[in-house]
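Re: [ENG-882] Designed sequences occasionally contain unexpected residues at chain ends

Forwarding the minimal case from QA. Structure tokens:
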């Protein structure tokens, strides 16, 4: 019987534990990934985790053949080592796309419709109209990263009547995008977009893709939304640009360092909306994530038999 190591990065129900065991695994559980393993590392055949290998050396997992991540990104695992050892590696593709896409639309609408202003007036018992509201219809939206999350973002903004351009490593026709461009074209085109949403993975080639130069060239009154990884933006440059360009608005859910340090100037900027890496949270995630891991684990153990 193969040993399956589960961690507290996912909240399992008793029924879900039972279903995984019925696949033919001996299930072991550890709440905190930095804690001691409940079995020898060399006895682990498969694992569902997130940051397990940040605290435990993957070289000690000599029999490991399968890794299911509960994150969409691969930046918390030693990908090169995993490839060299032919370990099957899966991420949470599609699990968080819906809530993240909804969050991007929410933040833009919140700004365009002045949600903060009306809440403040309500708290003060004031009947105050605002004549500066905007609409998404006919706006130009850039989505940096046209993968699963990017497509869900494009789908929702397209429904509002926006024109959507995707920036990715290909220019193939992609669902929900009106146009596809390559990343190196972003600087020359950034000034055309009313909204820029970042959904790309953090890679050596994408780190700092939203540079000081890109930020300086953004369209007047543009909105920047980052729901991917903080390292995709030059954070120091962003602080400088947002301080000098009050017309820009940034909705940031991810940061280079998390939690965001208390001394970060971003906390006190009126043209910034912050959230604590929360855009992926949803009441539908548990069902989607379990469906993904169950399917992948079932296929894995079937192939191994």
């Amino acid at each position: 019987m193969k040993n399956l190591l589960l961690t507290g990065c996912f909240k399992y129900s008793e029924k879900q534990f039972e279903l995984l065991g019925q696949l033919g695994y001996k299930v072991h559980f550890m709440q905190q990934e930095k804690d001691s393993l409940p079995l020898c590392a060399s006895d682990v055949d498969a694992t569902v985790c997130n940051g397990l290998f940040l605290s435990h050396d993957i070289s000690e997992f000599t029999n490991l053949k399968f890794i299911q991540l509960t994150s969409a990104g691969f930046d918390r695992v030693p990908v090169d080592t995993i490839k060299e050892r032919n370990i099957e590696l899966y991420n949470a593709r599609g699990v968080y796309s819906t809530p993240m896409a909804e969050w991007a639309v929410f933040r833009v609408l919140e700004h365009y419709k002045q949600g903060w202003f009306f809440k403040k007036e309500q708290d003060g018992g004031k009947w105050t109209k605002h004549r500066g509201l905007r609409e998404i219809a006919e706006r130009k939206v850039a989505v940096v990263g046209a993968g699963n999350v990017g497509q869900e973002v494009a789908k929702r903004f397209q429904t509002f009547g926006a024109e959507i351009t995707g920036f990715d490593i290909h220019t193939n026709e992609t669902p929900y995008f009106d146009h596809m461009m390559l990343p190196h074209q972003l600087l020359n085109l950034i000034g055309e977009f009313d909204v820029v949403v970042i959904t790309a993975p953090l890679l050596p080639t994408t780190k700092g893709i939203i540079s000081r130069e890109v930020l300086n060239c953004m369209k007047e009154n543009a909105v920047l939304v980052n729901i991917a990884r903080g390292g995709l933006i030059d954070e120091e440059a962003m602080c400088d640009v947002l301080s000098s360009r009050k017309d820009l608005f940034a909705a940031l859910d991810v940061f280079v360092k998390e939690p965001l340090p208390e001394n970060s100037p971003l906390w006190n900027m009126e043209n910034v909306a912050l959230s604590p890496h929360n855009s992926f949270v949803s009441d539908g995630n548990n069902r989607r994530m379990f469906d993904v891991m169950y399917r992948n684990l079932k296929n894995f153990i079937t192939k191994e038999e």
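QA comment: On inspection the terminal residues look reasonable. Residues 285-304 form the longest helix (20 residues). Proposing we downgrade this to a documentation issue.
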